[in-house]
Amino acid sequence: TESFLSVRDLRVRFSTEDGTVRAVDGLSFDLARGRTLGVVGESGSGKSVTGLSVLGLHDRRTTEVTGRIVLDGQEVTGAGEKELRRLRGNKAAMVFQDSLTALSPYHTVGEQIAEPYRRHTGASRREARRRAVEMLGRVGIPHPRLRADDYPHQFSGGMRQRAMIAMALVCDPDLLIADEPTTALDVTVQAQILDLLGDLQREFGSAIVLITHDLGVVAETADEVLVMYAGRAVERGSAEQVLRSPRHPYTWGLLSSVPRLDGDVAEDLVPIPGSPPSLLDPPTGCPFHPRCAFTGEVGGTRCADERPEPPHGRGAACHLTADRQRALFVERISDGH
Ligand code: SF4
Ligand code: MG
């Protein structure tokens, strides 16, 4: 499949008072039109920053982005603010977790959906208003003509999230980056929003980068999965591969928090002890080694000394052989650790 979004050796660094944070450290991936990539990891793994830098939305005063990002044949890295604005209007849009912060409290929901449409298409006020009402209807807001005149605080959390999706899709973007779009919502509403994203993707043909800490969300929606840890890709594969036969010990830990995976796998796994490393001073070798229970399987101090190769295609960044990864995972499930 032709790659619509191509990211090569992305590196993102922030300067802070305490030093330089390497938030993303050499990340590459591709995404085809109409496909969904789930980017999974704990907070601080670099996934949100990746989403922001793909759209050039990072803070340029404090953040340095290197590598190559190409969106529909157009360079994002190195593009000026004007080009980026055009790109974001026509080709790409973002949905954030926190709709209360992302939506302005001072404008009606309808105005906030109409505004980007006017800006990017030059449509009249009346036409943009009509389009906003239409979009509200499409994302499942009842009585859209009336509700378009409400302010965000008059909407429930789930409705605000729908409104934000309407705002993101109003210019018919080819790429939607959704950062934890359902995290703040209860489980039922979460499922509805994920269904909605899937429906809209079929209708609009957009590629979606879905950023989440929740492998359960990925199981519902993603075609492909990229698992991130400490700013790096540690595992990748199809959603089916990563969820059914995960190869990286970190992914096993993430899977333990998925309630049920077709009834069998997940419930016997234990969560990973410890917390993600500081990216001011990341661990040497495999960044996961301070938390990994399998360094002894690799032997010596290799896990602490040698950085594993990032996965190209299906695979995991781990010194264990692919066979050993598979065997250990199966052992782990059947022992019920
Ligand atoms: Fe664990 Fe070593 Fe594999 Fe890293 S390389 S995940 S520390 S076994
Ligand atoms: Mg985040």
Automatic annotation (TrEMBL):
Pfam families per UniProt: ABC_tran, oligo_HPY
Bilayer topology: Peripheral membrane protein
Transmembrane intervals: none
InterPro entries associated with the record: AAA+_ATPase, ABC_Ni/Peptide_Import, ABC_transporter-like_ATP-bd, ABC_transporter-like_CS, Oligopep_ABC_C, P-loop_NTPase
PROSITE patterns registered for this protein in UniProt: ABC_TRANSPORTER_1, ABC_TRANSPORTER_2
Matching SUPFAM superfamilies: P-loop containing nucleoside triphosphate hydrolases
Keywords: ATP-binding, Cell membrane, Membrane, Nucleotide-binding, Transport
Residues covered by the ABC transporter domain: 7-255
Biological processes, Gene Ontology terms: peptide transport
MF GO annotations: ATP binding; ATP hydrolysis activity
Localization annotation: Cell membrane
Gene Ontology CC terms: plasma membrane
Alphabetized NCBIfam families for the sequence: oligo_HPY
UniProt record similarity statement: Belongs to the ABC transporter superfamily.
Protein name in UniProt: ATP-binding cassette domain-containing protein
Species, as recorded: Streptomyces taklimakanensis
Lineage of source species: Bacteria, Bacillati, Actinomycetota, Actinomycetes, Kitasatosporales
